[in-house]
Amino acid sequence: MLLKNHSSMLFEAGTDEAGRGCLAGPVTAAAVILPTEFELEFLNDSKKLSEKTRDKLRPLIEEKALTYKVTHLEPVIIDKINILNASIKAMQECILQLNPSPDHIIVDGNRFKPINGIPYSCIVKGDSKYLSIAAASVLAKTYRDEYMNRIHEEFPMYNWKKNKGYPTEEHREAIKKYGITKYHRMSFRLLPEQLTLDL
After folding, report:
1. Residue 38 sits in which domain range?
2. Residues 116-168: pLDDT tens digits?
3. Residue 94 domain flag
4. Which residues are annotated as a binding site?
5. Largest interatomic CA distance in the chain
6. CA-to-CA distance for 190 and 185, rounded, in angstroms?
7. N or C: which end of the chain has fewer CB within 10 A?
8. CA atoms in the 13 A half-sphere facing the CB of 75
């Protein structure tokens, strides 16, 4: 399916987040306003792209976007307000920093909260339907991966460079062996009773 622009409105922001299901690291959101005639080969939902393709697309999105912002919200905030609220807050913070300010917002998923009275639409699987959400998903994912690679250097035993903080068996075994760090989300179930993964 070809991705398209959601509307011909001048300033429509697409927003998405990455890292919602992780045990460690921030939840990262991005918001992007693209020019009306924007086109970019291979752009799609970041989960459908290889790391190499995402890394190639990121500078092109940044160069062509009218405006974009990326926000990391740390585990301490996630633990305080819960992951859903933290995801929405991260997206809202990005939107507030966009210049120009959007006339309309399209959000990946089915939950959002109004921000500054700007009209919005929630679109399930929006990152595989609309260009601005796909662009936001690529930015959120690449910036978050970069962050996880950095903190991997501090705590290499968890192998965040590879698992990016997701609940892999290896990550859970490391938590069992070494305990938790300041980057772990305390409100998450870090260790289930059995170390099995339901795939």
Report:
1. 12-147
2. 999 999 999 999 999 999 999 999 999 999 999 999 999 999 999 999 999 99
3. yes
4. 16-17, 108
5. 54
6. 8
7. C
8. 17
Overall domain count for the chain: 1
List, in order, residues 6 or more apart from 68 with CB less than 8 Å away.
30, 31, 32, 33, 61, 62, 98, 135, 136, 139
Mean pLDDT of 98-122: 96
Q: What is the pLDDT of residue 136?
A: 97
Does 49 reside within a domain? yes
Contact present, 152 and 159 (Cβ < 8 Å): yes
Residue 35: CATH number of its domain: 3.30.420.10
The Cα 68–Cα 57 span in angstroms is 14
Give Cα separations from 113 to 35, 73, 122, 126 (angstroms).
25, 17, 10, 17
Place of tokens 């509307």: 7
**162 is a domain residue:** no
Cβ-proximal residues to 189 (8 Å cutoff; 6+ apart), any chain: none
Q: Is 34 contained in some domain?
A: yes
Mean pLDDT of the chain: 92
List the binding residues for a divalent metal cation: 16-17, 108
